[in-house]
Amino acid sequence: MKDKIIAIIQELAAESGWKIVSDLNYETVLLESGLDSLGFAILVARLEEELRYDPFTMMDEPFYPRTLGEFVAIYERYAS
Questions:
Q1: What is the CATH number for 20?
Q2: Per the database record, which ranges form the Carrier domain (predicted)?
């Protein structure tokens, strides 16, 4: 899942001209990754297209992940 998410982030960055940090890893803070709130929304929408689910709509209580690792864990937790 991590590799898929990073690949999509890199695709979106290339398409949109975003400057993403070169070493995306589990400890990367999302707010320092180069993604802004619009970029994050686009990423979630693209992941929903690719994976066919949006874990953020499936949560009982909303949670905003701070790191890439937390973001990946959310997708892994709600995968079918």
A1: 1.10.1200.10
A2: 20-51
